[in-house]
Structures are given as structure tokens and as C-alpha cells.
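S1.2 Input.
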Amino acid sequence: MWDLVNYLHEEKAQFSELADLDSDKLKLDWLGTPSQLGFIISELAKKGFIKVPQRKNGKPNMASFERAILNCFDGNFGKSVIYQAINQYGSDSNKLVDSNRAKFVIPERSDLS
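S1.3 Output.
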């Protein structure tokens, strides 16, 4: 009987560990700068790999876009840093310098189909 109790306690502990790995809470650790993340995500959006959330008027909802990114990545992000890095994702407003931008080359999604 005691073996059964021990077995059940071990099984309960394993299930508790699995519950701690809630997939909604798992995030990727971002090791680069917020500007790098913003640039890469913006490039993926511009090239058609990521759809930016839209407002009812059809304009990009950058606050929702920022929340989605922050739900996926953990990093050293200050308040609104990601928002600033992705805001106007179609423009060159990101703080990443041109020489570093040139190192990130992402083709159009349609070029890979």
C-alpha cells in the first residue's frame, strides 16, 4: 500500500511540473537589443511573413503589435522601447544604424513560394 502512495505522490509532482510549463507563459529569451528585435519583426511584417494587427479603420494597430511581441519574447525592454522600435514599421524610424540594417536581409515571402 505504501508503494502505491509513494507512486501517486511522484505522479502528482510530475503533473505539477508540467502545469508550471504553461505554454501561454513560455517566452523566447531575446539576447539582442530592442532596436534589433523591432527591426527584424518590422522587416518580417513588411516582407509579408507577419500580419500586423489592424484597427477597424484599416490602419496598423501598433499597440497590439507591441503586446503580441512582448507576449513572445523576454528581454531587457524598457517601457515602450519595442513600441518605438516597431512604430511606423514601414519607415526607417528604427534606431538601428544603416550599416547594421544592411546585415539583416529578409526576402519577400512571395519570392520563396
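S1.4 Remarks. The helical segments are 2-20, 34-46, 62-72, 81-86, 98-101.
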